[in-house]
Amino acid sequence: MRKLFAVAALTGSLAAVATIAGMAVMPVHAADAPANAYCYIGWPRDGEVIASGKPFRVWFGLRHMGVAPKGVNFSNTGHHHLLIDTELPPAGQVIPSDRNHLHFGAGETETMIELPPGKHTLQLLMGDADHVPHTPPVKSKKITITVR
């Protein structure tokens, strides 16, 4: 248990510790977002067919908010999370960090990814300084691409 408190002191977030420790995650307060804020995937487009066997670029767009790295707590800012082949996480909980939930906590607005052949869904979700979705959630439309 001492390790958990040490990690909490370093991260500043008990919710992050609960996720790391595999315990149930308690809801946390999410930062507010402007009602008209939205993010979008600039490329690839919905329905795009991508060549397999090589990485492809995904670029992110955001309107009516700013991008700030994780841990930076300015109003109306956040950072991108790319959700691959998954649903939106529950409101009020830290966005998971795994192969289906990619974090861009340095404030990146694009990435290179490689996916296996088949149909895949992509969706963006903004997270606040602590990786929690805003209230209301700032998300993109979910798109479907095919890798061949």
Provide a quick synopsis of the model:
The chain is mostly beta strands and 148 residues long. It contains two helices and nine strands, in the order ααβββββββββ.
Description:
22% of the residues are buried. This protein has helices spanning 2-11, 14-21; strands at residues 38-43, 49-50, 56-63, 66-67, 77-84, 101-103, 110-113, 118-127, 143-147. Strands 2, 4, 5, 6, 8 and 9 form a 6-stranded mixed sheet that branches. A 3-stranded antiparallel sheet has the order 1-3-7, with no helix packed on it. The protein has a single domain, classed as Sandwich (Immunoglobulin-like), CATH 2.60.40.10. It is elongated and about 40 Å long. Helix content is 12%, strand content 32%. With 148 residues, the protein is mainly beta.
Give me the Rg, rounded.
Answer: 16 Å
| Apparent shape | elongated
Looking at the structure, the CATH topology is Immunoglobulin-like
Number of helices: 2
How is the main sheet built? 6 strands, mixed
* CATH architecture title: Sandwich
What is the top-level CATH class?
Mainly Beta
- Please estimate the helix content: 10-25%
Q: Structural class of the helices, strands and pairings?
A: mainly beta
The topology string of helices and strands comes to HHEEEEEEEEE
Total beta strand runs: 9
Strand content: 25-35%
**Between the first and last Cα atoms, what is the distance in angstroms?**
47 Å
**pLDDT < 50 stretches:** 1-26
